[in-house]
Amino acid sequence: MENFKSGFVAILGRTNVGKSTLLNSLIGEKIAIMANKPQTTRTQIKGIVNRENSQIIFLDTPGIHKPKTKLSNIMVQTAFSSAKDVDLILFIIEATSKEIGRGDSLILEKIKEAKKKAILVINKIDLVKKEELLNLIEIYSKEYEFEAVIPMSAINTDKNEELLKEIENSLDYGPKYYDEETYTDQTIRMIAEEIIREKALKLLDDEVPHGIYVEVQKLKKGKTMENKPIFNIEATIFCQRESHKGIIIGKKGSKLKQIGIYAREDLEKSLGEKVNLQTWVKVRKDWQDEDAIVKKFKIDN
Fold it and tell me: Quick check: pTM over 0.70?
């Protein structure tokens, strides 16, 4: 297509800097789960923005952190692997940073190694004064020649168009990789697993969330008694300790019921159909180091 631009854009940043919030905001659909906990995103998620003269394929990646298990090691590898094969990198940092910290420095080195075009996105600008923001821009601008620097707040949409235009300007002319109706590569099963996990992340105590893993055992479309379409979904929340199992289930099953209600509401919005969701909880002590599970989070380069 003449004068049409397209490309793959990796979103890199430390844990909890707002990568998934920004992606969902740019896409206009909820495809990446969000929770105020580090390491929420565990694998690479594609989100597609279709514009009049461009198609932008975003890759939301796990936050950079110090790996302690096979799973967290794969997560960091996934984030850095994404930088190698993309056309552009969105490097997200927090406006509250006073200097280039260890995690951001590591990401910056990977961007330099990859020699990729990059846009610096300074998120959460509502939390700092203008002088602090200008100082941060100066520090990072000395380190790398960014295509653009966009200060913004990912929870607002007022800077989205400016950011998308800058991304468009940085991309080359290319084909349309996906049809216009496609906005993610996530399957219904993957979306269901992630939405259930998001609700658990938000509702559970701090010591539990990173020890949980959700697996959908059954996903079948059927009909209600009124002959309307319905998704029947059965899922298991795996945790690492027996004590965690009790916390997830809650008194008389109250916590698990709450997780299920919130997850079903979100799933019905995402799927546009009624959902019958059933959830169970099981203990699987060392799942974060089980190859059979960890390989599900690995991307093929």
Answer: no
